[in-house]
Structures are given as structure tokens and as C-alpha cells.
Write a structure and sequence with these properties.
Helix content: 55-70%
Number of helices: 5
Low-confidence stretches: none
Distance between the termini: 22 Å
Structural class: mainly alpha
Order of helices and strands: HHHHH
Number of domains: 1
Shape: globular
Length: 107
């Protein structure tokens, strides 16, 4: 898998691990509901998701790659209208990936 692009790696990972997206969205909704704030860093949500999922998985090789953060941030904002402005984004290869995507294919 190391010869694959970051885009291909993300797409494969996301398809195999839909729980990650669901967990990140749940955490984002919880953040907004409990704090009233509509901005949070994807890195913060990633670390909490890592913790929560690591505590419940039996897979010793379970990992979430930091490279996927940019892709998840864009995917969440594209698919969840109430979270459309949640993350501050920096330029990323994920920008090209998300443009023109059929989001239903990735959820």
C-alpha cells in the first residue's frame, strides 16, 4: 500500500473503516452542542476518536493516519450541512480530491 497516493490510501481506509467518519461527525456535533462554538480543529477530534476507538477495538494494528485528517475535514464539511464551516482549512491535496466528488460514494 505504500506505493499508493495519499488520496488512494484515504479512499481505501475510509471504505474499510466507516466508523471513523461516524465517530468524527458525532464528536463534531457533540462539540457544537456542548460548547456552542462552531469552530474546532480536526486534529482535536482525531485524537479523541483515536482514544475512543482504541479503547474498543481488538485489532492490535489499528491506526488512523494523520494524513487522512485533511480528507475527513473536507468530507465532513461537504456532507454535513450543519458542520459546513466547522474547520479552518489550509491548502491540501484533499482540496483537489473533494472538488466534484459524488459524496454518496464515500459514506
Amino acid at each position: 500500500m505504500s506505493d499508493l497516493s495519499n488520496i488512494a490510501k484515504f479512499e481505501l481506509f475510509h471504505a474499510a473503516n466507516p466508523r471513523i467518519y461516524d465517530t468524527l461527525v458525532d464528536l463534531a456535533h457533540e462539540w457544537v452542542a456542548k460548547t456552542g462554538r462552531h469552530k474546532v480543529g480536526i486534529a482535536s477530534l482525531f485524537e479523541v476518536a483515536r482514544w475512543q476507538i482504541s479503547m474498543t477495538t481488538t485489532d492490535p494494528d489499528y491506526k488512523i493516519c494523520n494524513t487522512h485528517r485533511a480528507f475527513y475535514a473536507r468530507l465532513i464539511m461537504a456532507q454535513e450541512p450543519d458542520l459546513a464551516d466547522l474547520f479552518e482549512l489550509r491548502e491540501s491535496e484533499a482540496d483537489k480530491w473533494i472538488t466534484g466528488r459524488d459524496y454518496a460514494l464515500f459514506y
